[in-house]
Amino acid sequence: MKKLTRIICFICIVAVLAVFAAGCGQVTSKGSDSASGTSSQDNSTAAKPTDKPKQVTMRFSWWGADNRHEATLEAIEAYRKLNPHVTIEGEYGGYDGYQQKLMTQLAGGSAPDLIQTDPIWNQQLGVQKENFVDLSRESAIDISQFDEGVINGFCLVNGIVLGLPMGINGFGVQINKSFMERFNIPLDTRWTYEKIIEVGRKVHEEDSECYLYIEDLTGLQVKFMCDYTRAKYGKYWIDDDYEIHITKEELTEQFSKMKELFDSGAAVPLGETALYNNKLEQYPKFINGQVGMVQDWSGLMAKYKEVIGADNFAVGDSIIVENAVDTSTTYKPSMLLSVYSKSKYVDEAVKFTNWFLNDREAALILKDCRSIPGSKAARQALIENNVLDKDVMQMVENTLKNPAPPVPLIMNNSEIAEITKDVIQKVVFGDITPEDGAEELITSVSEKLEAIKAESN
Amino acid sequence: MQQKRKKENKKAVKTALTHVFLIFLGLIMIYPLLWMFFSSFKPNNEIFGSLGLLPKQVIWDSYYRGWNSGQFTYGLYFKNSFILVTPVVLFTLISSALVAYGFARFNFPFRKTLFSIMISTLMLPNAVIIIPRYILFNHFNWLNSYKPFTIPSIFACHPFFIFMMVQFFRGLPRELDESATIDGCNTFSILVRIHTPLLKPALFSAAIFQFIWTWNDFFNSLIYINSVRKYTISLALRMTLDTAAAANWNEILAMSTLAIIPSVLIFFFAQNYFVEGIATTGIKG
What we know:
The structure holds 2 protein chains of 2 kinds. Chain A is an alpha+beta fold. Chain A has 2 domains: 58-167 and 333-394, Periplasmic binding protein-like II (D-Maltodextrin-Binding Protein, domain 2); 171-330 and 413-456, Periplasmic binding protein-like II (D-Maltodextrin-Binding Protein, domain 2). Chain A is 52% helix and 13% strand. Chain A contains 18 helices and 14 strands. Chain A has helices at residues 2-47, 66-82, 98-108, 122-127, 148-155, 177-182, 193-206, 217-233, 248-263, 270-273, 284-287, 301-308, 346-358, 360-366, 376-384, 390-401, 414-428, 434-456, and strands at 56-63, 86-93, 114-117, 156-157, 160-161, 164-165, 167-169, 171-176, 211-214, 291-297, 313-316, 332-333, 336-339, 372-373. In chain A, strand 4 and strand 5 (160-161) form a beta hairpin. In chain A, helix 2 packs antiparallel against helix 14 and helix 9 packs across helix 18. Chain B is an all-alpha fold. Chain B folds into 2 domains: 2-62, no CATH class; 69-279, MetI-like (MetI-like fold, Orthogonal Bundle). Helices cover 75% and strands 0% of the residues of chain B. Chain B has 13 helices and no strands. In chain B, helix 4 (74-105) packs across helix 8 (159-171). At the A-B interface, helix 1, strand 1, helix 2, strand 2 and helix 3 of A face helix 2, helix 6 and helix 11 of B.
């Protein structure tokens, strides 16, 4: 009996091993298949200029909502009509998870040929710049259509042009008109934080359900640690030299103002907006018209406008401080279009990039689904055909009157942002005084900066 | 006599109270689902502006529009999800049962070591293995297909289910194996004829778990599947959710409601077998 069991065991093991071997064999053959496939395609790309263009299939990934998906797919279809040998497959979805997926793909060497990226990832993407085509070296792209300031400030990372701006984002307040009329606040006020506190306090005293201003934690971190410091002191608090450039006194003043913004009742309590981080348009009081205004990018205007109602909506300049040293407005490209350097069809991808960003026909299909186009030619086409949203256009114009220089890359570092948010929360909720907050922030951020500096060297 | 009636009355009151309490708790539990269902008929401002169930302004076409939004209809995404989930569940059951049988009933060299290695993979957080796995599957040329899901399940790469079934096997009396051997069963037919019927409850609970987990899985599908044509339900639902624009929440909630139906149905259908499995287990271990 025992013998029989042993024999059966032996047979089983052999069978399993055989299956494994077969599996491996199949896999290796597949691997070599793909390898040979790659090389043959490489040959064809090299030989292309002489003979008829070969069928090319490229992948293009982007994030967005329905309107952007539809417009982009339509543009791809139009391109296919112009270049029948090029098929482009869209890989699209929401913003959630997009960055994680892209990073995994870059690590695995299987990223799409055309990639939409967010300029705030520049620091992380710039470290692996070998993955991206330097678009300034590609003659097929008319780079002169783009503002040099934008290119140098937001696209040039570690010596290469990582991507080209698909759109330009203006910045400013987005206002609920009937709220302002109800409380007799003129629409063309140039808002300062002092004024928001003053007027907002009155509004909240008049009706305790109403707030003049709304801000979430993510926004607070950006607006106080970037815009406020620049307006008040004409500098950024940290810079790419990995040093802190703000004194404890300045930071304390800044934190006190921030705390007052909430304590005075001018802004919706931070605890209440915690659930609506990055989606303030879903905050019930905002929907019910009990909030006066929000400050955000023009690219995000559509969602606020839909909630407030197009007739009831107005835009205004960005918020500064009283006696501001610097009255410029933050701005950035909405997103960049990059070409993957390991793509099999870099030339075709570059050609498509040029068409997608600069061509009139493409512009008229895409309209402002990625905010106002970054390319002059595309913008001109839209203006001539009168298809731009007037509020978005106005906000971008307001912004371009006096655009701020690009923020240092280090300010987009997510670890520093997390530390800052943590301290900001403690200060606003009253767990620590603004003074202690300033102290804590300076200590922990300077440690972090040292660590980052050590890593980068 | 009177005392008895009193006792009965007391008992009835107690049961009634328990029932009221349980119904109340049950309602609290199911409220989010009810809310999801009713909200699929509301406009955006009502969804976020109020907590009430009944819509003031009813939107009837959210199911129709949600189903047909975008490049493909949701029919495709449902089909994809089934194509992905069905083999994964079947293969997991077969392979996990085989491996668990091996661990529970046979003595072979390094059994304990191998078992602890298997259990240790259970402890590995998903985030740690995601990049190596991705690179591996990329070399196999499996990306943008359902192979990263189905093939590991053929090779019993779900240690949780193996562990669960090993525990179950250990509860089955060895006397059953012995009497089956006397009746002329070999080791394989012991598994098929004797153990599988007894294993039913474990198999069904594994099937329920695996179905629901794979059906709802977002991150792995996100990483391995690129083409929208191959998107599963969980990817499709997130397709239109973006920070840049207000989504039509009623359409998304309508599709979410449809998306949970298979999981709910599977649970209720399989639950019958589940109970039956326990009832017919015969000998107690």
